Amino acid sequence: MALQDVLDFGEVGADEAGCDEGGAAFGALAPMRTPLAHGAWVDIAPGWLRRADELYAALLRDVPWKAERRQMYDAVVDVPRLTKFYDAAEPWPHPGLREICAAVSAHYQPSLGEPLVTAGLCLYRDGADSVAWHGDRIGRSRYHDTVVAILSLGSTRTLALRPMGGGASLKFTTGHGDLLVMGGSCQRTWEHAIPKTRDVVGPRISVQFRPAGVR
Ligand SMILES: O=C(O)CCC(=O)C(=O)O
Ligand SMILES: [Fe+2]
């Protein structure tokens, strides 16, 4: 079944998206901001995506998930998660993702000055899957403020943040349907990670929306 058959993305868009009780897929976006040092910030909108179950199931089933390999020093190693990246021009696996991206983009574009146009998808199969400390520093995010918006689906995991060059780490919970947005200088002055966990957890999918040329 196509996503649009199970989610009503009908009259949604921009900030007042789907406020009627009719059951639009997501509500008005009014995230809570946590300012961080060095001009970084994190916005959180818990449970922003309603009825996230359908999107989670559809992405789990339909995305051609790929094992990630990464050059590390002189070896190519398996990165413990599966990924699939969609740029602006290619078809995305579900129309709902475009709707969600457009709504998030509409919220941040006035301050950011450009839209969010790509979707990076990650699948953490269980608690042993993870991503190590890093900034999304490919492209302009190395030099300029940017926004990386992350929609979480499935099992709850921790997204940890720590200042570059050392300092206490902060832990944010990313649960089913939550939106977490890193902004300002976050990609160049802070690092983020999804740590492994010994808790018994099922799969988690994250969808990262970014401006063109940021990765
Ligand atoms: O899964 C997440 O929430 C974070 C993913 C991430 O940081 C990345 O792929 O760059
Ligand atoms: Fe990242």
Automatic annotation (TrEMBL):
One of its GO terms (biological process) is DNA alkylation repair. One of its GO terms (molecular function) is dioxygenase activity. It comes from the Bacteria. Residues 115-213 form the Fe2OG dioxygenase domain. It comes from Nostocoides jenkinsii Ben 74. This is Putative alkylated DNA repair protein.
